[in-house]
Amino acid sequence: MPPVELFAQILQAGFDETLSYLTLHVITCLVPAFFIAGGISAVLSDHFVTKYLSGDAPKLQAYSIASVSGVALAVCSCTILPMFAGLYKKGAGIGPATAFLFSGPAINVLAVVFTARVLGLPLGGARAFFAVSMAAFIGLVMAFVFGDAADQQSSQPVATDGGQVPTQRPTWVTAGFFGSQVAILLIAATGLLSWAVKAPLLAPFFALLGYLLWAKFERGEIETWLQETWFFTRSIFPLLLAGTFVIGIIGAIAAIAQGMNPLETIQAGEQTFVAHKVAPGLLTQGIFGETTVLSAGLGSVIGAILYMPTLLEVPIVGSLFGYTQGLMADGPALALLLAGPSLSLPNMLVIWKTIGAKRTALYISLVAVAATGAGLLWGVL
């Protein structure tokens, strides 16, 4: 194949990956997530963060909340980032914040239920147990190494009318504000429902949010919320696009190395994949037949690098790597399921910008090591 055509296919794979990301996740996942992040920064009371998630909060309380908070969020490694950045900017300790960062994509109820249904109840249960345990472990180690006192400036937005944005409001108003947005995120993000079903389900939550904004929030508060939302959007979204484009490039190169056209389709079990999306996994199929340090470690590394939208990790493990056909052992399967939803190349770029290089390096290492260890333990059991 002429070099020019190869280069064109590699670029096309990058653009395809980016377009797929934009089509599948921007409106239904990222937009609601950015608004939630803006709300965390502008609306959530400093007292709440200080009391429940700061470095001074009781550890059992802080890490229990952070480690299970992802149950209600159907988010991927990129969608969780605005919420994580909002909490960290608001003053959450590095330990609880990173526990939340890991738990959000790792233990959302849709992913756990889908894993149990497709890959079996034992693996689904193992995923839930180890995800919660890993979230607490990662957060505690991060706090031990770097200290859990917030070292960043807490956001203190000021209303555009010249007065300080009030932070005291009835609990039910704050709960309704965030609860309606989380419900919108959950309903919009699920692929199990058509829009004909989603629309009537979304309507009452949009109505509730609109009522609260109209009746219970000052104009300055709403403007501050929108400003914070735009801040997270312009800070994070370009990095997500760049990282996703690079993932497509890597996949295309891996496909060409195996003699495939990056844009051709490949049948794996009952699933159909574009070659550049699965080529990195195909290179490693022969290693995953048994649980070893190499197979579990490689599973965690592949999961950490590749971008996997919520729930996609299940068919990748089941069909692409052949778990449902007995071609992939339990250990590397669990390691990939744990590391895959919680890390990706785009995700790493944004974490680095949010908490710095040293903290990011340790966080990534902890996820990879803990996922490897969990995979080895589960494989032995």
Automatic annotation (TrEMBL):
Top-level division of the source organism's lineage: Archaea
Q: Which InterPro entries match?
A: DUF318
Topology relative to the lipid bilayer, per the entry, is:
Multi-pass membrane protein
**Keyword vocabulary terms for this entry:** Cell membrane, Membrane, Transmembrane, Transmembrane helix
Q: List cellular component terms (GO).
A: plasma membrane
Q: Can you name the source organism? A: Halodesulfurarchaeum formicicum
What is any Pfam family matched here?
Answer: ArsP_1
Q: What is its main location?
A: membrane
Similarity annotation = Belongs to the UPF0718 family.
Cellular compartment(s): Cell membrane
Name of the protein in question:
Permease
Q: Where are the transmembrane segments?
A: 20-44, 65-88, 94-116, 128-150, 170-188, 195-215, 235-257, 293-312, 332-352, 361-380
